[in-house]
Amino acid sequence: MASQIDSSYPREGNAYTQNVRNQFETARVEISDLQDAVASLQTQMSSLIADNQRLKGQQQAAAQQVSGSPPNTASQQYVTAGLNVVLTVPTNATRGYVTAEGSLGNTTNAQNSYFQLVWGDGPPPAQGTLVTDTDGTLVGTEITIAATKAGDSRPFSVSALLTNLVAGHNYWLGGAYRCDGGAATLSAITVTAFNLIDPLI
Questions:
Q1: For residue 168, pLDDT beyond 60
Q2: How many Cα neighbours within 13 Å face the side chain of 114?
Q3: CATH number of the 64-197 domain
Q4: CA 105, CA 196: separation in Å to the nearest integer?
Q5: Which pLDDT score, from 0 to 100, does residue 201 have?
Q6: Within 10 A of 3 (CB to CB), how many other CB atoms are there?
Q7: What is the spatial distance between Cα 99 and Cα 66, in angstroms, rounded to a whole number?
Q8: How far apart are CA 116 and CA 186, in angstroms?
Q9: CB 83 within 8 A of CB 126
Q10: Most CB within 10 Å of its CB: which of 16, 68, 81, 109?
């Protein structure tokens, strides 16, 4: 905004007091407006800094990871691997992302083993819990390994996107495994999960 101060007043040799007062009043209004604008920008900047710090805090706490090699299972139905990440969904997050990687195998030649991601609301179940006996839900692609010899295993990686999560809720995210025969083996499994932070409201 251009200044409304008239630099031609007061005129030389004809300096009326009212002209001077008018100039000072114009300057006062403009300075007050500038001060208000600066104060507003400072408030907005403080809010942005606070939002940025809050998002940093959420991002630092969002990603969690567990690793291990659970016991073999001969179950032909999916049982939990016991490697569960627990996420508390923060404000501005309604989605989660979980990945698992490691090696899946079988103790017996020509037998199939299977792995799938699983998740649920609330506290995580113990290792070996039937998925059908929990609130868990299988999600993502099913990994299948056909053993070509006893003790055969192969590396895998799988991931899944979770949606419609509720702020403040605890969710457990992990893996489940089963086999057709023999015993399914999991080794060097790493489960990583994190919240996807939505834009600030």
A1: yes
A2: 15
A3: 2.60.120.760
A4: 32
A5: 46
A6: 9
A7: 11
A8: 12
A9: no
A10: 81
Peptide bond into 10 cis (omega under 30): yes
**pLDDT tens readout for residues 98-123:** 999 999 999 999 999 999 999 998 88
**Cα 186 to Cα 72, 79, 146, 198, distances in angstroms:** 7, 12, 14, 34
Query: What residues pair up with 65 in beta bridges, in sequence order?
Result: 192
DSSP state string for 149-187: STTEEEEEEEEEEE-S--TT-EEEEEEEEEESSS-EEEE
